[in-house]
Amino acid sequence: MIIVLFVFHLSAQELPPIVRYGSTVYGAGNQNWMITQDNNQFVYFANNEGLLEFNGSNWTLYASPNETIIRSVKVVGNRIYTGCYMEFGFWKRETNGTLKYTSLSQRIKNKLIEDEHFWNIINLDQWVLFQSFNRIYVYNTKDNSFQFIDKHPYIFRCYKINNSIYFQAIGEGLYEVVNGKSVLVCDDDAIKRNRIVEIYKHKDGLLFQTERAGVFKFEDNTLTPFYFESDNELRPNSIFSAKMLSDGGFALGTISNGIYILDKLGKIRYHITQNSGLSNNTVLSINEDADNNLWLGLDNGIDCINLQSPIKSYKDDSGFLGTVYASIKFKDRIYIGTNQGLFYKSALTNDTFHFVAGTKGQVWTLFEFDNQLFCGHDLGTFLIGANDIRLIYKESGTWKFNRVPGHSNLILQGNYNGLSILEKEGNSWVFKNKMQGFDISSRYFEISNKNQIYVGHEYKGVIKVSPANDFSKVNAFHILPTPHKGKHISLAQYNGVIYFAGREGIFKLNNKTDIFEKDQHLSSVFKNNEYISGKLNVDKSNKMWLFTKSYLYYLTSGNFNADLKKHKIPIPFSITNPMIGYENITQISDGEYLVGKTDGYFIINLADFKVKSHNIILTNISVNKLNERGFDLSMTDTGELQHDENNLVFNYTVPQYNRFIDVEYQYMLEGQQGQWSDWSAKSSVNFKNLEPGEYTFKVRAKIANSSPENTVEYKFTIEKPWYATNLAWFIYLFLFVIMAYYVNKAYKNYYRKQEEKLIEENNLLLEIAALENEQQLMKLRNEQLSQDVDAKNRELAVSTMSLIKKNELLNIIKEDLKKSAEENSGRSIKSVISTINRNITEDDSWNVFKEAFDNADKDFLKKIKAAHPSLTPSDLKLCAYLRLNLSSKEIAPMLNISIRSVEIKRYRLRKKLNLLHDDGLVNYILSI
User: Fold this and answer.
1) Alpha carbon distances (Å) from 375 to 96, 330, 368
2) Which one of 195, 282, 530, 827 has the fewest beta carbons within 10 angstroms of its own beta carbon?
3) Contact at 8 Å (CB) between 539 and 586?
């Protein structure tokens, strides 16, 4: 199938990087009227809300001194002069890093013209000129005096060219300031009628850039039209701001049509509008900084164009191109393969892109071989001619092409459904055959020097394929154990070695063992979570490229060994923005490389990729106190802080404004930590709750891959609290000594008193011991007495019992004798009975008993008689017997009465003793 091309085209403009800052980013008004830069390379903007400062890391807004729009700003030495409505003066940086305003117009307040705006500020030698539409105020910085240039109806703008000052008075012409006076130098009608936006130095004359009438050349007092090469395109525009660039070119800011950047001949290099990356189409002010970046103050926002950047970007805002998957320079054309199809443009001119008809759909790869261009497409394989295309394979989508070693007439292609062969027939290429026996998708594959095919598959790993000699079929294949499968893996052949890249690292095939071995040196590029994709790209200049999170790497052959050399370009993945897993880069000239993106592409010029050195600057040191408003420290003096002023924030910056250059910082706080921190893009650090002591804060920066240029130091001391100072410690020591003295004295008194107390207690104890001994002796005596009483009681009891037994015995004998006497009636027996009666008389027994009882218990009878006087001797006898705890049975013989009579006597005794019914008689007697 042959299709004639080409039908559609798309404008192509490769632009330098543009950094856009919206008002929400810088935190001020939309409009920015004038731009300037100081020696530290900080940039200042005359903004609707005040003076806006940008140091590369942070934006700071200083409110207008009288709450009006600041229209003009100019750095002169260490002062930043500004002008606004009815006010002008200067700002000067204090030691704490902030700017402080000093009014100059207040000195001549009565000489100001009503309703004046100061639109421009220029300087020459010791004079600073503030220009309004009515007058020019000339300020002498040496003696603080003022001169005035007036008497002109409408002063549009003033200009400084070399060492001369010019201004345009509308309706009068162009004047030069000479010796403080205005001297007319041109009154041509073209100058009277047209506003001069800027004046350029041109050879021996001047070029006047007008607002709407183009450019005029003024030389030898003659005014003639001057034409840039692109004058026809420029003339319809209304020029509001202009600047001659350091390379001799020009920058023209328009109203509603963006900015034109011209070369020194006036040819348009770039025309950048809101559609092609600018924040706004009206450019109010232009300034070129020390790094040749072009700053634009817009009607809505601020943009920085990196004119000298080695990177040029094409942004496909319309979506016509789509995501770039492949690119190649073939003959005099640059081809771009995208998800929308195949496009091309001339490589010699800034031409537009043309769509190749018939290629609508996904393009995967572009391959040059045998002076032919092959396109791997979702539809199959296209052969791209100068004026037509031919679909030579349509059985399946085509991923990739490779040469077949030793077969210059064959091309091996990887398809959705395996591998196939293209063959050259005559001057054309045709599809030959599919390799039978292998139907696995072959997006990545390489052929070894042994004609073994290695296929990389994200979901299977690396497959080793053994083809037939004629590549008609696959004899065998198997999956290698390593490296492992994974997303976004790839294979590439470089210098005859097959490399594999994946999340586990970079491996290379050992041709002797046919085993992939990990290359530790190359795998280090994926350390620190840098892995995004393993896609490897080999270009025509014998460089192998890969993309990581923070860098774009290219690998080249080593000088003295087989190890590859790593080169990194500090462009993070977030900026390169390719389709993950389909990263692509192609050499399009000696030093230029095209990198595909999801929204276009960019071109890197390696020859120009040089990073300019910048110094790091400490911008602010703030101190925070708990529940109090913080304050800023002087950065020129050693800081001396109170103990509770121990929360510090350090702000620092490197004032570089290149979009593709990263700045990283590293800090160290001597006194707290002894080593440098990890590299970080953060431009501030906060230290909390620092202990009292001496500290030295150090910070350094690296720009891209460069080594740190300088280290900034700041020394400060956090004082001890008053209660921890040396004086306080001396007072503590003095108080401690006094306290120790009095404590020692108190202890001595205490121990003396304790000693006296102990002595007293010991004496008391001795007395107690003596008393106890005495009591013990008394106890022993009492016990002895008790034992004696018990013995006497026992004797009494024995005696009593003996009397009882004797009387009982005598009674028995008496009874027996009575019986015998009755029977025999003998006088002799009666005589014996009479004798017995005399021996058992109660009185005799009682007398014996009483004598023994009194010896044992002398006071009992007296006590009970005293307690109960009504007791009779018979009652006392009974009490005595009861005292001995004798039973009624034992008492009866003693009293020579019956037991019944004893019970009666006991009852009567209870009555006499007045005992209650529940009271025991014996218990009561024992208790006396």
Assistant:
1) 63, 12, 9
2) 827
3) yes
pLDDT value of residue 793: 62
Encode burial over 323-361: b for 16+ CB neighbours within 10 A, e otherwise. Answer: bbbbbbbbeebbbbbbbbbbbbbebeeeeebbbbbbbee
Direct distance between the N- and C-terminal alpha carbons of the chain, in angstroms, rounded to an integer: 150
Average per-residue pLDDT in the chain? 89
Q: Output the CA–CA distances (angstroms, integers) from residue 653 to 287, 360, 607, in the order listed.
A: 21, 49, 28
Number of C-beta neighbours around residue 162 at 10 A: 6
Position 6 scores a pLDDT of: 44
- Is the pLDDT score of 8 beyond 50? no
Q: Give the list of residues 6+ apart from residue 129 with CB closer than 8 angstroms, or none.
A: 120, 121, 122, 123, 136, 137, 138, 139, 158, 165
8-state DSSP, 417: T
Both tokens of residue 509?
């095939």
Q: Which of 68-77, 89-98, 254-263, 767-776 has the lowest mean pLDDT?
A: 767-776
DSSP state of 349: T
Backbone angles phi, psi at 838, to 5 degrees: -65, -30
DSSP string of 617-643, one letter each residue:
EEEEEEEEETTEEEEEPPSSS-EEE-T
Residue 825 has pLDDT above 60, yes or no: no
Q: Which two tokens stand for residue 149?
A: 């240039």
- Please name the residue that has the structure tokens 């071109």: 603
Residue 272 token pair? 């950048």
The pTM score is: 0.75
Distant-in-sequence, close-in-space partners of 805: CB < 8 Å, separation ≥ 6: none
* Residue 494 and residue 446 in contact, taking contact as beta carbons nearer than 8 Å: no
**Non-local CB neighbours of 301 within 8 Å, separated by 6+ positions:** 20, 21, 22, 23, 30, 32, 279, 280
**Token code pair at residue 555:** 């690998």
Q: In angstroms, how far is CA 452 from the centroid of its own chain?
A: 50
Show the tokens assigned to 518. Answer: 């990990």
Asked, as a colleague might, if the bond just before 483 is cis with ω within 30 of 0, I would say yes
Q: Are strands 639-641 and 711-718 parallel, antiparallel or unpaired?
A: parallel
| 87-93/99-103 β-pairing | antiparallel
Rounded to whole angstroms, the Cα distance separating 267 from 261 reads 8
Spatial contact of 365 and 398, defined as CB atoms under 8 Å apart = yes
Beta strand pairing status for 453-457 and 663-670? Answer: unpaired
